[in-house]
């Protein structure tokens, strides 16, 4: 649905701590652009707790139609999860460390362009998913990248540089975890460095793991990287990503990277491999039921 500015009322939620970019002028930038387009708008801060009941009541009482998240994937996850039931359209001004969902949706990296898009773009239905009862929009990881996410969260700095440092440090000590995956009538037993379950086709910063992933195909893209020689692993991963070839899940390919799609899967995680949801470290679980939520929320994107 193309955005009709006359009937809109927007809440911009700014995360004061996300990413590394300066946000001093952001409040003025978004309010000036709203004024230019004749749209009523207010600015509020995001909250660390993820409790957006105060925003939900303002939407209901004051008739706000859109919520624009100025932050990263963690903020997008918390805000969309808390407010999806209200039926507002969501926008993103990508100001996090990775911005995977925003870039997968072709939202521009440039802040002024991303702000302009809020008033010229099109709201499109977008899938999300549930991991047991937890909400995800973009990417869930078990194993290596989750360990990096947990260590990243302990660092004083944010941003890509800190993330890369943590990835390199963890690479040399990386271990495997045992998993059992039940998917599309197959049961896969594997010792894996990591498993990614993706709705978006990138982690952010244009780094992709699941090149065929689409935000609105009703499917999740699963990438399984099993135990293999660490000297070979980066090349095998690059080859897999470049080929982007999807294959049905295989029960008898213990040393091959697997890439397949499914609307749901069950995952047993007896070694309690660490987990992240949309880049935020979360407490892991021994059993995970993962289900797509097709066409879960509306996201403002370029009109094409
Ligand atoms: N007002 C606030 N004060 C402190 N922390 C906040 C506030 N609002 C949100 N947060 C926290 O910010 C974190 C999310 O940051 P966000 O995802 O926006 O940026 P990022 O982590 O730098 O980027 P990305 O997720 O793209 O890597 C969450 O842990 C959230 O609880």
UniProtKB/TrEMBL annotation:
InterPro entries: ATP-NAD_kinase_N (IPR017438), Diacylglycerol/lipid_kinase (IPR005218), Diacylglycerol_kinase_cat_dom (IPR001206), Lipid_Phosphate_FormReg (IPR050187), NAD/diacylglycerol_kinase_sf (IPR016064), YegS/DAGK_C (IPR045540). Keywords: ATP-binding, Kinase, Lipid biosynthesis, Lipid metabolism, Magnesium, Metal-binding, Nucleotide-binding, Phospholipid biosynthesis, Phospholipid metabolism, Transferase. The keyword rRNA-binding does not apply. The keyword ATP-binding applies. One of its GO terms (biological process) is phospholipid biosynthetic process. PANTHER family: LIPID KINASE YEGS (PTHR12358:SF106), SPHINGOSINE KINASE (PTHR12358). This is DAGKc domain-containing protein.
């Amino acid at each position: 649905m193309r955005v009709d500015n006359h009937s809109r009322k927007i809440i911009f939620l700014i995360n004061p701590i996300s990413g590394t970019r300066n946000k001093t002028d952001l409040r003025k930038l978004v309010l000036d652009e709203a004024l230019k387009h004749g749209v009523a708008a207010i600015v509020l801060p995001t909250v660390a707790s993820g409790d957006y009941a105060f925003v939900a009541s303002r939407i209901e009482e004051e008739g706000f139609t859109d919520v624009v998240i100025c932050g990263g994937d963690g903020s997008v996850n918390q805000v969309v999860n808390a407010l999806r039931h209200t039926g507002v359209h969501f926008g993103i001004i990508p100001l996090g460390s990775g911005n995977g969902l925003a870039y997968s949706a072709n939202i521009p990296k440039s802040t002024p362009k991303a702000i302009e898009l809020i008033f010229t773009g099109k709201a499109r239905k977008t899938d999300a998913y549930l991991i047991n009862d937890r909400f995800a929009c973009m990417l869930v990881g078990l194993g290596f990248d989750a360990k990096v996410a947990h260590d990243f969260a302990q660092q004083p700095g944010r941003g890509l540089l800190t993330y890369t440092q943590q990835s390199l440090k963890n690479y040399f000590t990386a271990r495997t975890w045992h998993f059992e995956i039940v998917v599309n009538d197959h049961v896969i037993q594997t010792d894996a460095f990591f498993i990614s379950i993706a709705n978006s086709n990138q982690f952010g910063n244009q780094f992709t793991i699941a090149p065929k992933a689409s935000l609105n195909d009703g499917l999740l893209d699963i990438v399984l990287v099993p135990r293999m020689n660490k000297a070979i692993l980066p090349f095998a991963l690059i080859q897999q990503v470049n080929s982007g070839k999807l294959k049905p899940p295989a029960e008898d390919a213990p040393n091959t990277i697997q890439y397949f799609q499914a609307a749901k899967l069950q995952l047993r995680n007896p070694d309690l491999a660490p987990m992240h949801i949309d880049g935020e470290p979360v407490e892991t679980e021994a059993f995970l039921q993962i289900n797509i939520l097709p066409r879960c929320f509306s996201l403002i994107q370029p009109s094409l």
